Amino acid sequence: MSDDSDRVLDQEALAFHMQGRPGKIEIPPTKPLVTQRDLSLAYSPGVAAPCLAIAEDPSKAFDYTARGNMVAVITNGTAVLGLGNLGALASKPVMEGKSVLFKRFADIDAIDLELDTTDVDEFVNAVRYLGPSFGGINLEDIKAPECFIIEQRLREIMDIPVFHDDQHGTAIIAAAGLLNALDVTGRNIKNIKMVVNGAGAGAIACVELAKSIGGPHENVIMCDTAGVIYQGREERMNQWKSAHAVPTKARTLADAMKGADVFFGLSVKGAVSADMVKSMGKKPIIFAMANPDPEIKPEEARAVRPDAIIATGRSDYPNQVNNVLGFPYIFRGALDVRARAINDEMKVAAAHALAALAREDVPDEVSTAYQGAEMRYGPEYLIPVPFDPRLISAISPAVAQAAMDTGVAELPIEDMAEYKTRLSGRLDPTADALHLISREVRANPRRVVFAEGEEEKAIRAAAAFKATGYGTPILVGYEDRILETMKRLGIANAQDFEISNAGKLNRSKEFTDFMFERLARRGMLYRDCQRLVNQDRNIFAACMVAHGDADAMVTGLTRSSFVCLNDVRRVLDPGERVFGLTMLITPGRTVFIADTSVHEVPNQVELADIAMQAAAKARQLGHTPRVALLSFSTFGEPLRDNGKRIREAVDILDSRKVDFEYDGEMAADVALDPELMRQHYPFCRLSGPANILIMPALDPANISSKLMQELGGGTVIGPLLLGLEKPAQIVQMGTTVSQMVTLAALGVHESLHND
Description:
With 755 residues, this protein is α/β, with parallel strands linked by helices.
């Protein structure tokens, strides 16, 4: 960047850290502290009870305090980023940032501690005496060789995980990238020649982990500013360098690079020349990880070696070696089994899990976070990106399992599948709400037809649906086009997917007869019905569902929802009132909004029906329904005729003697704010905030749900199409693959409960 750009960025960063409450972290309470009783329980005298329990059994601290989810980020500021020894106080913004990353990516409560000492003994003692406060220790930005000594001594004397991220974090991510680079280039790690430039904490950790995953000791050459670290060298050596000295005639980095398969750089900008890269072996693997500028820029390396596979530490190039891919999830797994340490086996497990994740199909949400970049396993995508929501459920279980296998876990996990699901729910509010549904669907897999089977998103959704274990996907379209797209997407095992169309299924006449019987008195001739079956994929897919060839269908990628709904309703009859139900899921709250897709202005009977069916669906999804029938007015204030229809719907519900809470008409703020409800409307029938909002018309329902989707802080699912005799889900144009899979699973779930 230019100097001007740097100055602008600096100013923006300073403003960012100053705005609102200064800094980046706070500590909100996890318990209500509103009443005197709350305070009595949280502090004196109630707090005595857990104190006594912990004194009797120290393990109870994990039950009664935050220790089990608390990590200390500790430094003395002697090696802050690439800025050097800035001291303890100046390192605080970095440590706060690290604490934020723990929370953002793994739901771990982290607090930064800056120790104003460079004395190893003082540092070690300060940390060891803080041990009872935390479930783990993350050491950060401590210069070598002191960082080695500090970590080793703390690991020996503390019974909680101690992890120096500058060492092991980089090593784990780099090892994962190396595994995939070797796979892409068809190499075996046991046969490679590897050169590492740099002999600091990160470099030594990279070498150690590379050897742990199979790299032969004698084939790894390490270099520092004095040249190759060879057996017999005495200049500027220490015990950590000596451990990796090898017999070699090479004395310079240029010598070592000749014929090398792999280069790891953890040194300085410009350390590698184009000639060095040119001298490497075929398809050279170059991990130039110096920050902020790599040892050689990717474009410079590719100018002389177009076949090179390159990773850097920068986000503006593919294959970023970013520690945030590792440390939050490693600690998450370690904390969840109450591990006494983070050992080598846990690090290796993390590297393998990260490598495996890169080989899977990438969700649309990830591509969106990276400006829609296409990410598929290969030379340009060896390492997952930090905003991949699957990281926590991929890495943490692998780490936890390794901890259990090696005997350092105090609290083994009995059901690993359940644990993985629970992990995804810590960060993605959707996952928590859909947990039970997913389990039920996997236990009862069914057939779902994707009407727009030639579309790339439909194919990817079908692949994800199948891989998740939800059932058998059926793609409607021409087989050659679908297979060609699968090949382009790198989706293997095409033979495991069902492909259907009117000609292939050979049920055209049966479906045409069925449609003619339904539509003959609605202006349709037999040939019109034949054309619909043979040419309209929504009609054909719906016919498959109607005749039991599939249990549910998904459509909507290429046509408006109203067109799709009209198509589907030509084939499938309503079993109940047909309407759209949208789910808004935020941490701690799920709200259902209806009707968001069908009824323009529902009458009082339709409103009552929608309320009852929405309540039933919410209960089916694990929620206790509290229904608010909304209006701009609240219980007749201001008095307008518009509220009459809502009041009459409430009267209808009264007459039906339904088994859920409901009331109306009321404004949205009253419905969602229990304090406002109690203060001004004590007669309201709702015992708490509404979780089902029945809208007075389609306009406000659709507008509000889409506003929440674009501006809200939660996840929006739907609208779910409810009320048809057999399930059909209509996605919105522009939907993601994940949303398609979710709606497909919900379609299966509905079919299970319709039986």
